[in-house]
Amino acid sequence: MRLPVVFILITVMIDAMGIGLMIPVMPDLIREVTGGDLANAALWGGVLTTVFAVMQFLFGPVIGNLSDRFGRRPVLLISLVVMAADYVVMAVAGSIWLLLLGRVVGGITSATQATASAYMADISDPDKKAQNFGLVGAAFGLGFVIGPLMGGLLGEWGTRAPFWAAAALAGANAVLGYFVLRETVTDAIRRPFDWRRANPFGAFRALGELPGLGRLFAVFFLYQVAFFVYPAVWAYYGQARFGWNAGMIGLSLGLFGIMMAVVQGGLIRLILARLGERGTVIYGLVFDVFAFGALAFVTSGTIALILTPLAALGAVITPALQGIMSRAVGDKRQGELQGALTSIGAIAMIIAPLVMTGVFARYTRTDADIYFPGAPFLLSLTLILVALVVFLAPRRSPVAA
């Protein structure tokens, strides 16, 4: 594999690590800088995660368009240098406001996947683009697995250790890119920067133009919000319910991520062959009803650790839904569809942390009428039931399934 490709894949992996890296140490880190209790830490954790997602949503198109104007190389290298500096700031932050600023900058600098994908497109032959984009997706998925594991293991050395390691990784990758990354944007393809084309809200206009897909968009949104209960509250839930430390939380999230990769990379083919796309969506939603219900009420840490990777067996919903919608819109509107789904996913990522951590805080405060750390999973269960009802409702338009 050529060194520029290795650099691009490492960059995407580091981007994906941005959220997962903090999850295992977040409860202790926030309590360290605020002096509050676990419920208060969960609320601040929701704010920090949401801010990160908002910045990615707003600046992903901006950074992508900047790379079309000024080139992939400077955008990627500058982003990595700023990211490394941001992790250093977070490693020494003594206040919640500095952590918040760090998440703002981190969300912006992590919004470079579009630029990395554009670079891969620039260097790929037409018949190799799809498989190279697959490499980018695999690197992104690997980052989601490595982030929590790295955060959990290094968290044993202190709440700041994961940030020092991430800073070193981003800085080293910037050095590698400086020596191996060549520019691919030439004057022949360079175009002026246009704020109208860099506006992320433009993607929402596509929603009204896609006929008969409103119901499926609703199912997709409800599932995304429900699914985000894992990164939003898992660290707080594990500590409150089972007394897990950062290492155990990181291990459990790593098991979940690995199982998700296995399901989406291999098992889904068998399920689709047996049930079809519509049946696969129904299976996934029904499975998640039981998975969320079990996690809401389980009291044994050992059983929870066993359930965590098993819960990923329901992670077939998104690919199956995308398959249904992709066939419905036709070949000419695939990009439009994916852009709309990306926007929906971003909004879900913004909303879910605040809602899930708010519910967790409500039922884990010292003055709570009912102490119930599993409450967010019951909320996710409810959202999945609503999604199932919407999906099974009679269809008014001829959307293929």
Q: Can you walk me through this structure?
A:
The longest helix has 52 residues, at 246-297. The radius of gyration is 21 Å and the shape is globular. It has 401 residues and is an all-alpha fold. It starts with a helix and ends in a 9-residue tail after the last helix. Helix content is 76%, strand content 0%. Helix 10 (229-242) packs across helix 11. The model is unreliable at 397-401 (pLDDT under 50).
In short:
The chain is mainly α and 401 residues long.
The helix count comes to: 15
Structural class: mainly alpha
Proportion of strand residues:
under 5%
Evaluate the radius of gyration.
21 Å
Please state the average pLDDT score. Answer: 80
SSE topology string = HHHHHHHHHHHHHHH
Unreliable spans? 397-401
Largest sheet: none
Spell out the blueprint of helices and strands.
Blueprint: H1 3-20, H2 26-34, H3 38-70, H4 72-92, H5 96-109, H6 113-123, H7 129-155, H8 161-180, H9 214-227, H10 229-242, H11 246-297, H12 301-311, H13 317-329, H14 334-362, H15 375-392
Helix pairs in contact: 1-6, 1-7, 1-8, 2-3, 3-4, 3-5, 3-6, 3-10, 3-14, 4-5, 4-8, 6-7, 7-8, 7-11, 9-14, 9-15, 10-11, 10-14, 11-12, 11-13, 11-15
Comma- or semicolon-separated keywords:
single chain, 401 residues, mainly alpha, globular, disordered C terminus
